[in-house]
Amino acid sequence: MLPTSISSMKSLIFPPFSPLSLHFPKTKPFAFFSLPSKTPNVSYPKFLHVNPSMPSPRPPIFSIPIRQSHIETPQSSSLCGEVHVIVGPMFAGKTTTLLHRIQAESNNGRTVAVIKSNKDTRYGLDSIVTHDGMKLPCWALASLSSFRLKIGPDAYDQLDVIGIDEAQFFEDLYDFCCEAADHDGKTVIVAGLDGDYLRRSFGSVLNIIPLANSVTKITARCELCRKRAFFTLRKTDETETELIGGAEVYMPVCRQHYVDGQVVIGAARSVLESKKLQCGTCT
Ligand SMILES: Nc1ncnc2c1ncn2[C@@H]1O[C@H](COP(=O)(O)OP(=O)(O)O)[C@@H](O)[C@H]1O
Ligand SMILES: Cc1cn([C@H]2C[C@H](O)[C@@H](COP(=O)(O)O)O2)c(=O)[nH]c1=O
Ligand SMILES: [Zn+2]
């Protein structure tokens, strides 16, 4: 028997919720299923280079899988996709984790494609490369909305899994994930920075958390004390939010060293500014 408050409610959904559907969402656990591979002519990335001496990525320290159930219904099994989000500071292993998940999906016979932002030109535009040198061919795009046309609508329809790296640079991330997972039935695996060098929310990455089946925050090692690093410190005095770079510009730091670093950088900046004011030749 349902509680009165629920049973007396008029359902706007047909058929109305059963008590079972209230308690057990009809989602599938990540990587628990394998769809048959569809056509052989779809581009099917393989790892070009996996360094065998590379340690496997550190386990996430913070993972919130949204409650899932093994109960499936026939009508939910084909259409609904999934969204999985991997965040953390630079050098935490986001790209490594994304590539491992994509490789696992591909090994399960699922058709995969990976997208990165064309703003990140660090290693050329044709591949995603981790800080360790692991590499996977990708689509480098200015916007996610261009993906379907770029890959071709037929190839898009054949895709099971879409990986997105450097997600902070895509303005249309929310709309793309919604459409791909809810409407097109794709599994979307997103990797990106949750925060910028000032620890402000970066791009649309945090906006897609309400869409996600799972959210995983991973950490790096603080470059100064080797403790867990949750943040990215910018070592230079540039102030624009988007500034492409690697270890020459950024370092992963723990909370203490982030705070100390901001104080040191702030002090250095004010010294430089006061020197500029005193110097007659500087403008
Ligand atoms: N300061 C650093 N400079 C270069 N490589 C680093 C540094 N710190 C960690 N790494 C390496 O980078 C790997 C993570 O690379 P990657 O997956 O590309 O990270 P992310 O995508 O989170 O930036 C780590 O496992 C580590 O081996
Ligand atoms: C913190 C921060 C980073 N970026 C840039 C720097 C890199 O090009 C990417 C992050 O790459 P990774 O795969 O996570 O190592 O983002 C930026 O533009 N602004 C920032 O504040
Ligand atoms: Zn530290």
Automatic annotation (TrEMBL):
It catalyses: thymidine + ATP = dTMP + ADP + H(+). The keyword RNA-binding does not apply. It comes from the Eukaryota. Pathway: Pyrimidine metabolism; Purine metabolism. InterPro entries: P-loop_NTPase, Thymidine_kinase, Thymidine_kinase_CS. The keyword Acyltransferase does not apply. GO terms for biological process: DNA biosynthetic process; response to stress; thymidine metabolic process. It holds the Pfam family TK. One of its GO terms (molecular function) is ATP binding. Keywords: ATP-binding, DNA synthesis, Kinase, Metal-binding, Nucleotide-binding, Transferase, Zinc. Its EC number is 2.7.1.21. PANTHER family: THYMIDINE KINASE, THYMIDINE KINASE, CYTOSOLIC. Belongs to the thymidine kinase family. This is Thymidine kinase. It comes from Gossypium tomentosum.
